[in-house]
Amino acid sequence: MKHKLLLVLLFLSTMVGVGQTPIQGEFGALTLPEFRKKLQKEYGIELFYDPVWGDSLSLKGEESFSSLEGFLSAFCNQNGLSFFQQGKDVIFTQGQALNPKLPQGFWESPIPQESERTGEFSYLNAESPKESILANPENQVYSIGSFSASTAPSVAGYVRDSRTGEALVGASVFIQSPPTGTLTDNFGYYVLNLPRGAHELIYTYVGKKEARRNIDLQGEGQLDVELEEEILSLGEVVISGEKSQIESVQTGAVKLNLGEINTIPTVLGEADIMKISLNLPGVQTVGEGASGFHVRGGTNDQNLILLNGISVYNPNHLFGFFSAFNPNVIKYAELFKSGIKAQYGGRASSVFDIAIREGNRNKLIAKGGISPITGKVSLEGPIPGNKGSFIVGLRSTYANWLLEALEDPRLRNSKAYFGDVIGNLTLPLNEKNNISISGYYSRDRFRLDNDTLYRYANANASLKWRRSFSNTFSGLLTLGYTHYSFSMDSERTPSNAFSLDYGINQSQAKLDFDWYPSSKHHLQFGLQSSLYDLKPGELLPTQELSGIRPQILNSERGIESAVYVGDEFTLSSRLSIYTGIRLTHFTMLGPGEVFLYAPDVPRESSFIVDTLSFASGQNIKTYWGPELHFTSRYKLSSQLSAKVSIDRSQQFVHMLTNTIAVSPTDSWRLSNTYLSPQISDQVALGLYKEFTESGLEVSLEGYFKNLQNILEYKDGADLLVNETLEADVVGAEGRAFGIEFLLKKKTGQLNGWISYTFSRTRLRADSPFPEERINEGDWYSANYDIPHNVAVISNYKVNRRVNFSLNLAYRTGRPTTVPITQYQFRGNQLAYFSQRNEFRVPDYFRADVAINIEGNHKVDKLGHSSWSFSIYNLTGRNNAYSVFSRFQEGRVQTFQLSVFARPVLSLTYNFELR
Amino acid sequence: MKPVTHIRTFVGVYGILLSLFACVDPIDLDIPEINSFLVVDGLITDLPGPYEVKLSLSGPLSSNDFIQVEGAEVRIEEENGVVEILTEEATGLYRTSETGIRGRAGNRYKLYIRLPEGQQYTTDWQLLKAAPPIEEVYYQFERRDRPDGRLERGTQIYLSTVDPQAQTQFYRWEWEATWLHVAPFSSGLKFLGNDEAEFVGSNTVCYNTTLSSNINIGSSLGNTNDQISDFPLLFVSTFGMELMFRYSILVKQYALTEEEYFFWTNLEEANENSGSLFDRQPQSNTGNVFRMENDAEPVLGYFSASGVSEKRLFIDRTELPRDVNVGLAYTNDCFTRADTLTKERETDQDVFNAILSGRKFYDFIRDANLGILGWVLVPCECYDCKELGGTTEIPDFWPQ
Questions:
Q1: What are the angstrom distances between the C-alpha of A391 and each of A550, A760, A894, A913?
Q2: A213: closest CA among A10, A432, A6, A46?
Q3: Side-by-side strand order, sheet with A891-898
Q4: Distance separating the N- and C-terminal Cα atoms of chain A
Q5: Where does residue B106 rank: exposed (0-12), middle (13-18), buried (19+ CB within 10 A)?
Q6: For chain B, which end, N or C, has fewer CB atoms within 10 Å of the first or last residue's CB respectively?
Q7: Partners of B219 in the beta sheet?
Q8: DSSP assignment string, A655-690
Q9: Which of A542, A823, A893 is the mutation pick for testing B, counting most B CBs within 10 A?
Q10: The A180-183 sheet, strands edge to edge
Q11: Where do the DSSP E strands lie in A62-129?
């Protein structure tokens, strides 16, 4: 409290005349600190002064005054002080009196002429001493908007990191009275519609110092703010003002920031945003090292993985060991499990939105890191002569030593390679126009035993142009391109030499608008369109002797378009409602052929009765339908809110997989005459509570989901280069429900989260024909039906340089199909299996620890480095990755395969040069 | 071979890729041992009969002692033709008569079973497809890496087949390997005591036969000309004894219907699961036999109607590189396990005791000057070739 003066805010705008506070009698001979306490206690007046000179002063205790002001005035005169009063705050200064008037000429040149000003932003005095404003912008009053009454008063702007100049996403901007606030969007942009007059805006963001700005709001205007790094001293607890969970209408959303990603231990030391998301409630995995994940009972292909707004098809390296995103370049990832906004579409179960950092706008910085199997570098910095910035990251592997260390000769002779490049360029053209360009490329090669070569690659590019038409109305144009392809080549036996290629391209254009027509409404609407172009399979002989029959499947083309509108309506400070509707239309385009099958028999290639041919550009099959998204938040108190959401999502691209985990040769196909769109309907309810004092957040969410047209496969189906795919798939329906509990502590010396999920997912494939039924048409557990799932992610800051992380994971074993009886047939000893997923593998438990040590923390030091030492699976528990059976001396013995059956140690070194 | 099979190799290997940190442990999933289903193993071919149908019940996972189903009525019917009731030759083994029904390519057959308790089972009509002749069965002397890291050499046996009519497309192969085995210590002597032995003869040369016990199927679906080239059937290692003298393999090629081919594919896949998450999901496989009263009851096995063609290949030791040791492990084992008993320490009684405990008397240890110094005793499998399961009868196909 002694230093309160140093933090004091000077309210220069709303100067109130010095009032008269009556006092009785005298104060007695008090020291100034004693007097301060008395004032606070008896009169509710806060007295500020510099303790350097103030603590030694004392009152004489003789004079008697009728008003406090008279007393203060006399006291100051005696001691050569000045005093300043606003409301209940009294400030003593020594030497210089506080002048409540604006400096001379403050309003001069920047104020445009009345005629130019209407509907325009107004700016701060460009001529005024900028340094001093920057030095303490909290001392200033910012006049926002023109005085003309034609525009609704609103303040908007960007919130950025003062060190790097990067936009801060999800920073909260609010005023305390009346309690009104908002969060910055993906560009760090915020808009607040407020009544005319004086306000104190508060800007907060985790890990940053809170900033306050006094504004005099008259119309529409802009105010950009930079937040400084919070330099923490040991033991200090930061209570963030972010009220996202309580305030936002959103259900089922979790955000992971870069800081959270880097401290969590992972296998082989690779910080990995997608693997960490597996610890979030409602996210399930079928095994460690398996790529893909399942959200709230959805299948693997139902997650829309976006990188800067553009989808990525196979975000995995090395069959799923690592996600294909360089952590140095990732800003954050946000997972939406429900309450999905209408601007997202195209996948049925979730949105995993990954944002690339814009790069430091002030300095050139190089970062790098070395882990046991990868090396990565990134470079970022400002673009000279412009306010823009760039970032580029590169990652490559040297995993071959790992293979060479293996005993199995087939693997010792194998070679693995992967790498990825990611980059972003941000160009703010002017205050109203912003352009960003980003690109991404990842590729994997795996040569098995000097023979078959497997390759796959993702390429992704986007151009975004954001234009602010006014404070409250902005548009974003996104042009994007995504490519995913894989291939296999084998030349070992000339008679069977072949190559197989698959590729999908998606070109998309999106036009999204954001409009705040009043303080109560936030409208988002737009148009989106994607053109899919697929090469579903090309099998070719690669040598003259090869007997492989060339087989080239017709390419597929489809257009998915959508219009949407969504409105977040704040009915009162307690009740907010989001209603969004998205009308989606999908057309499979010619050229193409559609086989017609005989009715009343199972759909099999032998029952094809006719073939329809379609010319180029002709509509083969069209699907369309509305998708409703509704969310509502009711605040029971300032720290407790309840929410409900309803979502419908449709999906027109489907990944074909009949293995348990996603494999690199799983292909995507479009909806057609036979493959109906996958549809998910979800209702979710949630309760959210915050404990401001302790920095804790608690949420409890429940959901029920209904799934239609999930693809399941007939026994023995070959999905690659399959001309009659529809004859090998069956449509299944699914039902999922669950309860998710999350306790999160975002700040403080000890932070992290604990999550518990109870969930069930059951599927059913029924048909009049036994061939098309699974488990006789009864409901059965999905592969990822994992009822109990507990995750603990914790990080303890020992001191500024050392932190310690501990993760715990427990989950029920996943369902599996195992032998139940054995028999002899035609000389073979064979096993007969249970119904699909009738049994479960043993439960899973794992503990990981990591210690992260950073170099010294001098803010301006040239180089920073950090070490991270982690132990994955500390207890060395043998967790079942899968179970399988073998015949042993006449018995059928079931085994479990554990992938990481012992503690895996790794050491990672990261550096940063600036 | 279809490229799809390559994917499965890839997939299997993924499990091993993880083996740097991985481990495999037996587990007990508490699977109830109450599941028992009818298993039908029936086959009619276009070769002369008799044909057999075996009926048994599947058993618990912990034992391969299966119950045979006796007393059933079993019929094979030809579409628009004869019906034959099979006779039970042994428990659970039903056979047609020598002069009875005869499978013919292009005809369709069905099986009917009535258990003593009255349950009736049948199949749909099964088309018997002719099998084209096997184009070639050949071998290459190859080296390969064993999973334990050792290098082994041996003959890789391949087959190629082609159907000029392009009708078959789906194949299954069985093989029957016969190899000559000579017991290295087969002296034929019987120890009588007191430095005496008489020649009673012993089984020195045997012909051992092994049957294929894994599933070999192939499809020419992805190939031009209904042709399958270089299908790797089996690898015969020089670590084993098979190639020591002369080896012969008879390959039987069965022409399958598409339905039967997929039955075998699923069976193979489910039973060769490596534990990788990239394996296809195993599934419960039933065949073409169903219960007439309740088609949901699982009936295992298959009633096959298949055309058959055969081809035999011989491999002589002399064809293999000279510097290769064949069956070294066996020969070495016989030498190291041969015991010498000396008169200095042992008596005749010790020799008799050793014989009683299962050893065989091979010969005396003689010295030109000192006479008999002791005895050599050997393990049975080094003395009597029949101990390893062979027969001394010369098979009729064996070249003299």
A1: 44, 42, 51, 14
A2: A10
A3: A882-888, A891-898, B23-26
A4: 37
A5: exposed
A6: C
A7: B170
A8: EE--BSSB-TT-EEEE--SSSPPEEEEEEEEEEEEE
A9: A823
A10: A141-144, A211-217, A197-204, A172-175, A180-183
A11: 81-86, 89-94
Judge whether A207 and A179 are in contact, CB under 8 Å.
no
Chain A partners of B149 at a C-beta cutoff of 8 Å? 407-409
The C-alpha atoms of residue A547 and residue B166 are separated, in whole angstroms, by: 14
| Tokens at A216, concatenated | 């005099």
Q: For the range A125-134, what are the long-range contacts, defined as Cβ-Cβ under 8 Å and sequence gap of 24 or more?
A: A128/A103
Give the three-class secondary structure for B308: strand
Give the containing element (helix H, strand E) for B193. strand B189-193
For CA atoms A807, A901, A833, B234, give the dihedral sign. positive
Task: Name the token pair of A285.
Answer: 């995995």
Cβ separation A897–B280 shorter than 8 A: no
Determine which of B1, B14, B24, B29 to mutate to test the interface with A (most A C-beta atoms within 10 Å): B29
Let me know: does B296 contact A776? Beta carbons within 8 Å.
yes
In A542-591, at which residue ranges do the beta strands (DSSP E only) sit?
A: 551-552, 556-570, 575-589
Task: Tell me, rounded to whole angstroms, the distance of Cα A54 from its chain centroid.
Answer: 50
Is the previous residue joined to A178 through a cis bond, with omega within 30 degrees of 0? Answer: yes
Lookup result for tokens 């060479």: A404
Query: Who among B25, B230, B300 is closest to A878 (CB)?
Result: B25
Interface predicted TM-score of the whole assembly (ipTM), two decimals: 0.86
HEC-encoded secondary structure of A858-899: CCCCCEEEEEEEEEECCCCCCCCCEEEEEEECCEEEEEEEEC
Contact between A535 and A503 (Cβ < 8 Å): yes
B150: closest CA of chain A, how far (Å): 9
CA distance A124 to A140: 10
The beta-carbon neighbor of A830 closest among B24, B57, B267 is B267
Residue A104 clears pLDDT 80, i.e. is over it: no
d(CA B95, CA B42): 10
Q: Which residue pairs, CB below 8 angstroms and at least 24 apart, start in A209-212?
A: A210/A241, A211/A137, A211/A138, A212/A9, A212/A138
Does the beta-carbon distance from A452 to B27 stay under 8 Å? no
Contacts of A670 (CB under 8 A, 6+ apart): A532, A534, A556, A558, A588, A652, A653, A654
Cβ contact A682:A336 at 8 Å: no
The CA distance from A222 to the nearest CA of chain B, in Å, is: 54
CB of B247 closer than 8 Å to CB of B319 = no
Average pLDDT, chain A: 82
**A556/chain B closest Cα distance in angstroms:** 22
Out of A289, A448, A659, the one facing B279 most closely (by C-beta) is A659
* Partners of residue B258 in chain A, C-beta under 8 Å: 606
Place of tokens 């509704």: A630
Q: Which of A670, A747, A665, A675 is nearest to A709 (CA)?
A: A675
Token pair listed for A765:
């494939």
CA distance B47 to B41: 18
